[in-house]
Amino acid sequence: MGTRYRSILANSWSLLTFLLVVFITFTSATSSKSASSTGDSVVVILDPAKKADYSIFLEELQAKGYTVTIRAPKDEKPLLIEDGVPNFSHVVFLASETKSFSKDINPQTLVELLSSGTNLVLTLGLKQNLLTSLAPEFSLLLPPPTTPLVSFFPERPEPPSVIPISVDTTSTPNDSFSVLSSDVGGSIWFSGTAFALSSNPLLFPILHAPAESFVGDLSDASGLVSDALADAAEKGGEGLWAGSSLAVVAGFQTLVGGGTGHGTDAGSGLEQQARVAWVGGASLFSDEFAKKQIVEKVHQERGMKVVGNASGNKQAALDITGWAFQERGVLRIDDVSHHKLNESGAVEMYTTNDEIVYTVHISSYNPSTRKWEPSSGLKDLQVDFTMLDPYVRTALLPVRGKPGAYSTTFRAPDQHGVFKFVINYKRKGFTHLHHTMTVPVVPPRHDGYPRFLSAAWPYYAGAISTSIGFLLFCTLYLAGEAKEEKKTKKE
Amino acid sequence: MKLFAFLSFLALPLAFAASSDGKEKLTSLAASGNGVIKLNDEIFDLLTAPSRDWSASIQFTALDKRRRCAPCKEFEPSWNAVAKAWTTVPAAQRDHHFFATLDFDDAPGVFQKLNLASAPVVWVYGAARGPYQTGKTQPLKYDFSNGFEAGPLALHLSNHTPVPIPYKAPIDWARWMTVISGLLGFALTIRFIAPVLQSRWTWAIITICTSLTMTGGYMFTRIRGAPYTGADGSWIAGGYQNQFGQEVQVVALIYGTLAFSVVMLTMIVPYQSSPARQRLQIYLWSGVLMLVFSVLVTLFRVKNRGYPFRLLL
Amino acid sequence: MPTAYPLPTNVSPATVANTASLLRIVAFGLISAAAIASRLFAVINFESIIHEFDPWFNYRATRVLAAKGFYEFWNWFDPTAWYPLGRVVGGTIYPGLMATSGVIYNFLHYFNLPVDIRNICVLLAPGFSALTAWATYMFTAELKDPSAGLLAAAFIGIVPGYISRSVAGSYDNEAIAIFLLMFTFYCWIKALKLGSAFFGTLAAVFYFYMVAAWGGYAFITNMIPVHALVLLLMGRFSGRLYVAYSSWFRFVGFQPVRTSEHMGALGVFGLLQIVAFASLVRSHVSSKQFQNLLAISVVTMGVLGAGAFVVMTYKGWIAPWTGRFYSLWDTGYAKKYIPIIASVSEHQPTAWPSFFMDLQMLIFLFPAGVVMCFRDLRDEHVFVIIYAVVASYFAGVMVRLMLTLTPVVCVSAAVAFSTLLDTYIDPTEPEATTTEAPTAAPTTTTTTATATPDSKKIKKAVAAAQAGNSASSIASSTFNDIVSATTRKGKSSKSKGIWGADARLAVLLNAIGMLAFFVFHCTWVTSNAYSSPSVVLASTNSDGSQHIIDDYREAYYWLRQNTPQDAVVMSWWDYGYQIAGMADRPTLVDNNTWNNTHIATVGKAMSSPEEIAYPILRKHDVDYVLIIFGGLLGYSGDDINKFLWMVRIAQGVWPDEIQEPNYFTPTGEYRVDDRASDAMKNSLMYKMSYYRFAELYGNQNAVDRVRNQAIPKVGPTLDYLDEAFTSENWIVRIYQVRKEDPLGRDLKSANAFEQGKKKKRSKPVSKRRVIVN
User: A171 and A64, same structural domain?
Assistant: First the structure.
């Protein structure tokens, strides 16, 4: 009875939120564009029954100006891809516990979405579903199903599978973009599975698991944890998923323009670049965790004091989706130009040993103003001048006074051929910058060489001697004629 | 536990001992065999032991009469020559590479094991351990595409030996002697054969013969190494772009006859004194011309099926 | 005096001469017409199109020349060839051909004749063949007489050996080279006869033209010195020789003298100076001493020169012989060290049938002609003899050098034939005792142009008649020669001639029959064998009608219209020029095989498995791979048949990675069916050739019609390439190289994923249980 009543209530509530969502969708559709650099439309694949659990997250998205469409896993419509054209620019996959989906939602479709430039936020569940088979393609190593990440530290009333992860444990290398902004104060509540990352340059961790956590099975209460850890330790930790090298959130940037940038690979390919955020559990986005307090013991003069802070989940969810939807860390090559030193205007071919000036303009996307702004911030940008192998590889330094312009001057190698200017800037979290431009380098013209070569003396000598010889020959020849006549006369 | 440790303690020196004295054995064998180790089953296994710290080049051959392996006999000398050249290398490097010969009749088992269907074959086993260790475990096969000569063989094997094989082609004294003696003989007899050399017809004959052989396709048989006759004894090779040695002679003969008859008609016959004989000769040579030419055409039709024309026959 | 047939007596010598020259002109006009017409079979059977492979480059270069002018052409760097190395065209080619057609083009346009450059290129070769006929005429006329010249012109006009390289559309260097060759030789002979510096210079000028036009100029560079040398050794030094040779050589002197090809010329020049000096001395010292002096000086010079030459070659001061030159002498050299040269079909040795095919009856008239050259052994005859020996050797070594043999064969055959005709048309009948020489015995002009009467011949007849009684009479050189020849043959001076008309008739009919047969032969060979522009193939249907197979152009135009301008196409080098010419796309390698490594790279890519080939393709920015496959149609000149050469050339550079034996079955067969070796089955070339080939046959088993082998039902699969285009008869297949996978996987596993196969976990995992307390 009670349950039944509650379910009805839940349904009506969900219906209500749905109407609300639809309403907001319309309004925001008419309102200004979203913070993303690639598009406003978001489809959230989510069981309608669970919709209420993520209301905060969804509202925040809409507040950012996204048009959010909810699609139940079983629904036939709206299709993700129609006639090879993606219907949405971002997909959030929150149905982590669902097992069966309508047929157009499958790993192949998701990969196809990526290659056509749609961004994904994928949340793994404890049960096995299509994501479990998709994850290996992104070189994620998943623990066996139904084994959540557990940790007994710090001591807390929550079950060991609900873990507070403090953000400052996440270490992002300097050359990569830190996805979680500093607004994520304190810790993040997490519950779900963790995964190991195999070495794929496109994949990088956003949030690591706590050092003392590990992956274990909670399904029933038999056996001892000490044994579990012990026999794992005996095997040298083989098969034990533990420690801070595991990640609970990881980012993946698809590869585009990795090709020759030439012929059929031409085109900057920026618009096709897509990002994927892998999250160990959908609960990270949930209202429950967003509202949940994090209780910490703070040392004071007089013993301990227990304080409760708001968790960083809400902000973290926004940061993760913000990065995935290409709001932040988005770069673009506006313009590439090259010309001879002390000359202006492009040339279609260079001569060997020319001094070449190469300039590139780069701008980055600013989600707050929603505009592209020139960015001079890149420290380690470089350009190759390559034919089969790079002949020149030099740093591109920002030009003072010209925001967003990077330039360098180098001398063309003493080797003719079809060379390529190659910019290949791949940093974790940032958009990949890849640009190639071919230009032939030709030998000097026939009159471009020095007039007199010491090496050519044999030929000069030959020529001169021949002409002298010609004169001598003429004289001798005439003389000889005369003599012959004389001879004939004598005979 | 303890036992295991003990065993391993025992085993290690044994292994080393095995390889080291095996090496001495091989060295002595090589020295005795004039650089080439004559292989049988167990020496083969020793030589190609997985724990070898030496490399080895092995010639698989079948020199026995009954095998009737002509290429084997052809290749044998150059193999021995290269192996002999290797013996001149200082021992430090020499003992890291061995040359060996395995005859089919000594160890047919090895042939089956390596399923070798043909001979001669040369395989190079790289060193599995030691200073000259190579990553490859599989033996490399030597490609006979550029012949059985020792020069290319040594050149190729030098890629796998510690130091290049100091092989030098032997000086062909016999040829030099013949050349020199020929020159001397010529110089001595010059005054006797001078009139012959000064006669234009000597040179004419030389010229004609040369051009006849050349146009008979001699160079083709020379370069392609075409046989004198076909395997089935047929003297004419099928196919437009192919011919046998005998065809050169036949064709050259035909050309020669035709040319000769023309020459007779133009240069000899007019000088005949009696009309009867002259007339006879004219008809004779015209007939020869006609007949041999049609023979030639028929021959050509055999080579080139599509040729539509024919003469008398 | 008796004659075999009645002669008109009331014709004045002047009339005879005029008629003769008129007839000569008419005959020559007809010959030129025949020469040009017989080369138009290609245009008639197919269309006005450039043939073969190399002509496509010449055509492209000519267009550049015509469009941009000579200086731009000189500096032309072609970035689309040999991508990404590029090719310096201007400095590395023989511009003679292009320059010639460029001049013609501008000339015509100056007179407002808007002729398309393509038609000029197509028709250049036939035009020059007429000129060749003329040069041959002049040459032979110098050798014997104009009637022989006309015969020679007729021969070279229609002989297949020359037509094979000069049909309309085969726009190649040889087209003009043979004319230059013959004319240079003519000038040389002329210079030698007259001792005129003018002709010597003319020879040098045309020699220059030749140098600019054809790599075969080395032939002249060595023929003329050899001739001079032989003349010296025969003790035939004369002021004429000196003048002719010096005036020729002083221009050749400009040539880089450091290559061995030119050494001979230099040496002979030096020798000539010595001898000239010696002959100067001769006028002062007595003959005996002179002989010794000459002998000694010659010998010492020879020794010194040879020694110096050897030393310099050894020290490397002078360039060693080029590879192609080696392959001429050491016949095994090419196959061993430069497989690229050996792989070219026209560098194969010549079997006798092709001699007969190309020269027919001339091939046995040729020795007879040489014999006659020996009879009256003047300087020019010596030249022909040397030429005959050398050229017949070269022609035996390489099929393409048949071209250099053809002229001398035509010349000497003409000499032989016209001598035959002269002998049997000459009406004078010998007598037992001739009383006195007849005055000019005019002969009628019979139907054949070759029988035109001619003062020289009459003189010979006269001389012959006089040979009987007067041995010590002022006589022409011809006379002397005949006498000497005959006396050498042991025949005392007898009267020369033929009795009776029937004998003459027999021989003449025989001769005319042979000529007719020759004409039929040439027509057949030209129309059937040498007129197909290997770009367009023709096959005859069951009902005998002709069916045109146009796959090449279909594919090339597909490339041109459906791929980006800068899409790089990889193919075997045979098709490089055609792709550049017809599809206008960058190619990796083409028919001027200047970079062995680059070609070997392509060979490696073709003969390696996909996953090894893919990085090579990406590194070279390859977008499309084009292959030729004849298995469906039975077109034998396809890439699978050339595959072993690719393997060999790749093996030359990467002997450890590519090995030829791996591509044969264990029993040493070259198979493509299910018994094919693994290396063969995994090679890119095999996969591309037979990709989806079995599907075409449905249920019955697929058969490769070239190899006559059954292709396995389950064909090869491609992970790194996509089939982009396959022509109507499957002769040309084009594949597109796939891009890297967006997820950074290797394309093989990406494909597996696409087909829905699950990727197995890369790490075994075991479940752990923990207690909750």
Answer: yes
Residues of A in Cβ contact (< 8 Å) with C763: 141, 196
Instruction: Give the gap in angstroms from C-alpha C224 to the nearest C-alpha of chain B.
Output: 18
Do the Cβ atoms of B216 and C667 come within 8 Å?
no
- Return per-residue pLDDT of chain B as tens, 313 residues: 444 444 444 444 444 444 567 778 888 888 887 888 888 888 888 888 887 888 888 888 888 888 778 788 888 888 888 888 888 888 777 888 888 888 888 888 888 888 777 778 888 888 877 777 776 777 777 777 667 788 878 888 887 788 888 888 777 788 889 899 998 988 888 778 778 777 888 889 999 999 999 999 888 888 888 888 877 778 888 777 888 888 899 999 999 999 999 999 888 888 888 888 888 899 999 999 999 999 999 999 988 888 888 887 7
One-letter identity of residue A171 = S
Residue A342 belongs to domain with CATH number: 2.60.40.1930
At which of A423, A442, A461 does a domain end?
A442
User: What ipTM was reported for this prediction?
Assistant: 0.75
| Residue C445 DSSP code | -
Residues in chain A with CB shorter than 8 Å from the CB of C741 are: 255
Chain B residue closest to C498 (CA)? B270
Residues of chain B contacting residue C349, judged by C-beta atoms under 8 Å apart: 217, 219-220, 222-224
Please tell me the CATH superfamily of domain B19-157, with its number.
Glutaredoxin (3.40.30.10)
Question: Are A315 and A350 within one domain?
Answer: no
Residue C526's SS3 state is helix
Which of A292, A324, A356 is the C-terminal boundary of a domain? A324
- A475, part of any domain: no
Chains with 3+ CB–CB pairs under 8 A to A are C
Distance CA C567, CA B94 (A): 54
C-alpha–C-alpha distance, residues C485 and C487, integer Å: 6
| B contact test, residue of C331, C371, C415, C517 with most B CBs within 10 A | C371
Mark yes or no for CB contact B266/C510 under 8 Å: no
Count of CB atoms situated within 10 Å of the CB of C193 = 15
Chain-chain contact of C753 with A111 (C-beta, under 8 angstroms): yes
CB distance C566–A239 less than 8 Å?
A: no
Quick one: tokens of A40? 């406003």
Where along chain C do its domains lie? 178-321, 454-491, 551-772
Q: Which of C352, C385, C520 sits opposite B217 (nearest CB)?
A: C352
Task: Verify that A126 and A59 share a domain, yes or no.
Answer: yes
Residue A479 domain-assigned (yes or no)? no
CB neighbours of residue C561 within 10 Å = 8
The tens digit of pLDDT for each residue in A255-301 reads 875 444 455 554 444 457 889 999 998 889 999 888 888 777 666 66
Residue A469 within a domain: no
Q: Has this prediction a pTM greater than 0.80? A: no
The minimum CA-CA distance between C495 and chain B, rounded to whole Å, is 6
Look at residues A431, A366, A436, A359 and name the one whose alpha carbon lies nearest to residue A398.
A359
Eight-state DSSP code of residue B266: I
B266 chain-C contacts, CB cut-off 8 A: 368, 372, 416, 419-420, 423
Put simply, whether A237 touches C (Cβ < 8 Å) is: no
Element (H, E) at A208: strand A203-208
User: Which residues of chain B form CATH 3.40.30.10?
Assistant: 19-157
Structure tokens at C564: 């980006």
Domain containing A102 equals 33-324
SS3 label, residue C695: helix
Q: With respect to CATH, is domain C551-772 assigned 3.40.50.970?
A: no
A387 Cβ under 8 Å from any chain C Cβ: yes
Whether cis (ω within 30° of 0) applies to the bond prior to A78 is yes
For chain A, what is the domain count?
3
Together in a domain, A259 and A249: yes
For residue C570 the two structure tokens come to 């990889």
A–C interface: beta-carbon pairs under 8 A: 174
Taking CA atoms, B23 is separated from A288, B63, B162, in Å, by 76, 27, 16
